[in-house]
C-alpha cells in the first residue's frame, strides 16, 4: 500500500530523532493570547519547504504511490516495489537537482538506477507519474491559500528559500505560488543562503522595506530563525516539524545551544495571522505604493529567476546589503514607488 513507504520512512525518522522528552523544551504559541507582536509590520517572509508546502511528507507520499503502481500494475513483489521507491527517495533527497542535466532527465535517470534489471524501461513513465502525484501532494491547502490572499490585502509577502534553482522554481511554478508574493528569492540564484543575513536584506531591498518591519516564518532554526535574528527582523516564527517527519539532521533548540530562540513557536502556518499586530495602519501607509501597482498589467514580482548563471552571481542592482540605508526608502520614510 501507499502507506508502506511512508511507514518505513517514519520508522527511520523516529529511530534517528531525539527522544520525546527532548522536545518538551518549548511551548507553542496559543492562538488568542495577548502575546502578539507589537512592532509595526509591513512584510511577511515565508520559507517554502515544510512551511508553505509539505515537501517532506508530499515526496514520501508520491513515492508510496509509485510503489503501489509497480506492485499493482507491473506485478513487482511488494518488497521490490517499496525498495525501488525508497531508493529513489533517498537519492532524490540527497541530490534533487543536477546542474549538468535538465530536471526531467536527471530524475528519470534516478528512477532508472533504482529499478531492477528488466524494468528500467519504466523509468520515464515513473518519473511522469511521480511528478503528477508530487504536485498533488505538495499543493498548499485551500486554507493556506485563503490566508495568503487575506494577508496580501494588508502586507507585502515574500518567499526566501534555500535550495537548487531549477528544483525550487519547479515547485513554485507547478503550484502557481508566484501570484501570491511580491518577492521570491531562491538561494542558488544568489551568492548567499539562509542564515546569511544578506539574503534577508536582499528581500528587504527588493521590497523597499527595512528589516525591522519584517517577520520570517520557517521550519529550520539554523537557517530561518537564526538568519532572521541576525538580520534583526521584527519577529521570528518557528514552525517545528511534527516528530514523525523529523530527520537526524533537524536541529532542536537544545542543539542550537540556547543561542537561537524564536520569538514565537507555532503548530501550523495558519497561526501566523494570530501573531501579527492587531493594527495595520502603519502597514497600509507603507505598503500602498506596491499594493496599487499590483493591479496594473505591468506589475511583476521581484524574483531571482534566471540569476543562477555563474557569470551573474554578483547582483549589481543589490547594493551593500549590510547597510540598512541601502533599502529603497525615500527621505520621508515611505517606500519608493518605482
Kindly describe this structure.
It contains eleven helices and seven strands. It is an alpha/beta fold. It has helices spanning 2-16, 55-72, 78-94, 103-114, 123-138, 142-152, 165-174, 197-207, 221-230, 272-275, 281-294; strands spanning 43-46, 156-161, 183-186, 214-218, 235-238, 264-265, 302-303. The model is unreliable at 8-23 and 308-338 (pLDDT under 50).
Search tags:
disordered C terminus, 11 helices, 7-stranded parallel β-sheet, alpha/beta
Compact summary:
Helix content is 41%, strand content 8%. It has helices spanning 2-16, 55-72, 78-94, 103-114, 123-138, 142-152, 165-174, 197-207, 221-230, 272-275, 281-294, and strands at 43-46, 156-161, 183-186, 214-218, 235-238, 264-265, 302-303.
Question: What is the N-to-C order of secondary-structure elements (H for helix, E for strand)?
Answer: HEHHHHHEHEHEHEEHHE
Number of strands: 7
Read across the widest sheet, the strand sequence of neighbours is 6-5-4-1-2-3-7
Largest sheet descriptor: 7 strands, parallel
Shape, per Cα inertia axes = globular
In terms of DSSP E residues, the strand content is 5-15%
What level of helicity do the residues show?
Answer: 40-55%
Q: What is the tally of helical segments? A: 11
Distance between the amino and carboxyl termini: 54 Å
Structural Rg: 21 Å
Mean pLDDT: 83
Amino acid at each position: 500500500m501507499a502507506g508502506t513507504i511512508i511507514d518505513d520512512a517514519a520508522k527511520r525518522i523516529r529511530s534517528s530523532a531525539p527522544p520525546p522528552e527532548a522536545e518538551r523544551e518549548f511551548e507553542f504559541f496559543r492562538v488568542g493570547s495577548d502575546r502578539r507582536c507589537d512592532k509595526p509590520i509591513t512584510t511577511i517572509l515565508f520559507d517554502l519547504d515544510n512551511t508553505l508546502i509539505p515537501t517532506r511528507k508530499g515526496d514520501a507520499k508520491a513515492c508510496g504511490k509509485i510503489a503501489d503502481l509497480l506492485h499493482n500494475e507491473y506485478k513487482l513483489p511488494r518488497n521490490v516495489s517499496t525498495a525501488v521507491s525508497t531508493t529513489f527517495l533517498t537519492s532524490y533527497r540527497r541530490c534533487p537537482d543536477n546542474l549538468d542535466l535538465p530536471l526531467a532527465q536527471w530524475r528519470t535517470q534516478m528512477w532508472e538506477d533504482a529499478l531492477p534489471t528488466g524494468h528500467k524501461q519504466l523509468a520515464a513513465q515513473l518519473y511522469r507519474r511521480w511528478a503528477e502525484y508530487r504536485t498533488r501532494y505538495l499543493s498548499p491547502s485551500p486554507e493556506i491559500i485563503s490566508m495568503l490572499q487575506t494577508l496580501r490585502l494588508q502586507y507585502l509577502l515574500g518567499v526566501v528559500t534555500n535550495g537548487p534553482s531549477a528544483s525550487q522554481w519547479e515547485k513554485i511554478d507547478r503550484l502557481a505560488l508566484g501570484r501570491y508574493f511580491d518577492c521570491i528569492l531562491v538561494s542558488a540564484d544568489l551568492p548567499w543562503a539562509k542564515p546569511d543575513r544578506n539574503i534577508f536584506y536582499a528581500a528587504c531591498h527588493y521590497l523597499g522595506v527595512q528589516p525591522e518591519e519584517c517577520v520570517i516564518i520557517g521550519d529550520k532554526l539554523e537557517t530561518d530563525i537564526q538568519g532572521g535574528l541576525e538580520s534583526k527582523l521584527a519577529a521570528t516564527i518557528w514552525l517545528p516539524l511534527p516528530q514523525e517527519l523529523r530527520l537526524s539532521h533537524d536541529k532542536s533548540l537544545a542543539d542550537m545551544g540556547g543561542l537561537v530562540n524564536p520569538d514565537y513557536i507555532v503548530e501550523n502556518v495558519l497561526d501566523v495571522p494570530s501573531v501579527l499586530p492587531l493594527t495595520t495602519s502603519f502597514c497600509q501607509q507603507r505598503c500602498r505604493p506596491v499594493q496599487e501597482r499590483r493591479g496594473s498589467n505591468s506589475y511583476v514580482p521581484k524574483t531571482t529567476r534566471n540569476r543562477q548563471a555563474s557569470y551573474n552571481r554578483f547582483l549589481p542592482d543589490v547594493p551593500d546589503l549590510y547597510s540598512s540605508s541601502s533599502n529603497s526608502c525615500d527621505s520621508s520614510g515611505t517606500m519608493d514607488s518605482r
